[in-house]
Amino acid sequence: MRFATLADASGSTTAAVLDGDRWRALPATDLSSLLARMPLAQAAGQAGPALEDHHPVLPLPSPTKVICCGLNYADHILETGRELPRFPTLFAKFADTLSGPSDDVVLPPGLQVDWEAELAVVVGAPLRGADIDTARGAIAGYTVANDVSVRDWQYRTLQWFQGKAWDRTTPVGPVVVTPDEVDPAAGLDITCRINGEEVQRDSTATLVFDAATTLAYISTFTTLRPGDVVLTGTPGGVGVARDPQRFLEDGDVVETEVAGIGLLRTTIRFAADSPTPA
Amino acid sequence: MRFATLADASGSTTAAVLDGDRWRALPATDLSSLLARMPLAQAAGQAGPALEDHHPVLPLPSPTKVICCGLNYADHILETGRELPRFPTLFAKFADTLSGPSDDVVLPPGLQVDWEAELAVVVGAPLRGADIDTARGAIAGYTVANDVSVRDWQYRTLQWFQGKAWDRTTPVGPVVVTPDEVDPAAGLDITCRINGEEVQRDSTATLVFDAATTLAYISTFTTLRPGDVVLTGTPGGVGVARDPQRFLEDGDVVETEVAGIGLLRTTIRFAADSPTPA
């Protein structure tokens, strides 16, 4: 099944489920709110009226946790001469970091901004000290993300966080697809394009730590809750690793796609009046 | 002024303000809830009945962000032969990571657990793209924290997060003291003791990045909100840096103190049945 948070022309949002070729409203303002109350399968039974003239927005606007895995595509790791990691590299973002599938990413000029196409996992049930099978059963679904990174800030110190947590710079969406409909372990093509030029391509079958393994691992030290989002890493082809290095420019359109899930289309804007004061 | 979240014998909590030698109830269940609605100074004017038989618990149970600074005590950095950092090293915790000023910290056996006495800053007003003066004016107050760290997990990969975000392992409290009453820049003694033996001692005057500087820096990339908590780093004397290394043992009582603020008393327990399943 496919779920989303959809907005009408006024920006008013509703959770929704795809029924054939029609999106139907679910009784919640968005998928975060929905997942906090019930599993997606149960929610689907409460589908209401078909929606017209709605567009997808950030599906999970209020996760309690957003955790990211680095260094997780085996082909890329091996081709750069490194060994496969024994443990997942993890770092955190905030709910504020996330943005919608067609939102612009706006940053101050002068930063080195890079792309990172990622498969993201949505948690559907509480997990703590879970084994891999329990974790697998707790996956609500999969969605697409781009861990757009501010590389100069990321590498100012040894801890990446300050380059990874800029508000409204991690597009997520456009839909959440349940595990019965899409199986990353079987291999989904994950790609990234800049202004139509392909810059990343790999298969999710090459993930070192798959979704269930990663959720179980995280649950060892912290509780994961319905609506939490875990990004599973990016393949080779990122700008900072190129020679010469390449970064995003004002007006670049970044497309992030995972086959079987959908597409993010993100315009990068460098604006002198950003960030927006609180 | 001094504020706290206090609980009665049944565990029911209220925000509170110290009036002379009596704690008086404020109209909120805790300081997170209070700060979300009004500045502390305004809250103090709404003090209600004096409280009897209440004890301090985690003052901020629901921060939207908990951000920590590493490598921030100048004397310690220099004595280990390093240069003072140009930028603060930052990493994130979650609200789930925090625990109360007299709560046990419970972890599975076999982990390498270390102590890190820290001054913590509580945000009192929204900050984004703030300069240092604006950030200073947005400090609600100061409290004490111990960034208890699971060192073996912290160093499994280059990103520390997975050793820093174990649920209910970062004691915070016991009170929040407003900046008019305590000035870390002037130098507050910060100490840590294990079973009465002093293991850390320094002065907050030696912080490389003071509270206002750190908040302003963070606000460059993300919005800080009332009730958010920023830990400002730990002095020398941590266990992992000793030769031989030393880690906490079952039953150890860790006392963390900042002069002018208060004391945390934390018993470390290694329990085979932890973590608590979700």
Automatic annotation (TrEMBL), chains A, B:
Residue intervals of the Fumarylacetoacetase-like C-terminal domain: 65-268
Taxonomic source organism: Intrasporangium oryzae NRRL B-24470
PANTHER family in the cross-refs: FUMARYLACETOACETATE HYDROLASE DOMAIN-CONTAINING PROTEIN 2A (PTHR42796:SF4), FUMARYLACETOACETATE HYDROLASE DOMAIN-CONTAINING PROTEIN 2A-RELATED (PTHR42796)
Record-linked InterPro entries: FAH, Fumarylacetoacetase-like_C, Fumarylacetoacetase_C_sf
Keywords: Isomerase, Metal-binding
GO BP terms in the entry: carboxylic acid metabolic process
Family: Belongs to the FAH family.
Keyword Transport listed: no
A GO molecular-function descriptor: metal ion binding
SUPFAM superfamilies the record matches: FAH
Protein name, UniProt field: 2-hydroxyhepta-2,4-diene-1,7-dioate isomerase
